Amino acid sequence: MIVALAGGVGGGKLADGLASILGGRLTVIVNTADDFEHLGLPISPDLDTVMYTLGGIANAEAGWGVAHETWGFLDQIARLGGPTWFRLGDRDLATHVLRATALRAGASLTEITDQLCQRLGIAARILPMSDQAVRTIVHSLEGDLPFQEYFVARKCEVPVTGFTFEGIAKSRPTAAVKDALEATDLEAIVLCPSNPFVSIDPIVSVPGMRQLFIDAGVPVIAVSPIIGGAAVKGPAAKMMRELSFEPSPATVAAHYRSLVTGLVIDTTDAPLAPTIEAMGITVHATETLMKDKSDRKRLAEECVAFARSLTH
To answer: Rounded CA gap, 271 and 261, in Å?
Structure first.
């Protein structure tokens, strides 16, 4: 079995590749610190992106939401003077309504996510990092911003100075997360190419999570979201520059230094391998840009083989 940590589009793509070769032997722990409430509905953007991607219904062009979306609900919200900065499509809306109904009835986020995944025919297990609410606050030169206001409403244009995860001290890994990380047949933990600061950090910051990784006693590898000094998608490279770091796989390696034993980087960045290996992290260089499903599967196969090589 493999456990993957993911958040957002890049994480969803590699998780999809891993699911294509592992099926039910894959568990994906997903960031929920960018969750928020909008129009009275609980929205879980990263959970939904991973779920839609593995369920084969993701909007590939937009990178978020559901394919073949329609916008009647949002159009009527606009007509009635409501907020339209966060785009909720008609098909996507069904997920949020069912989630809200289940949570009000006493279900946990883990339970309703399981139900939705089963209905989409997803063999892999998709788990929220915690059932307790954690919310990313972006510290910026213009003050503190809730993550979705920074990411969607402000389009990541505000320079960042740091991040806080509100509620993290009261959060805990769920029983399902513990079961996955304590499984006797666990082979490796894979950190997908998601933003290290706002996608992976919240997961590993849940109290007790790092110890579960240590106690698992398996290789922990990460895939760099930075290729040739740029992020494939999202603000990771921009955040690095604003935090006075060079956007590079070496920066990713330094950030993950106490956590990972291996790092997958793009062949473009292969000259950085000696620098990264000097940190005690083994490097595997390959083509990491996932343009289609065959790329996802190939990269997933290489990640699993790389992790297994570190076992020996």
So the answer is: 19
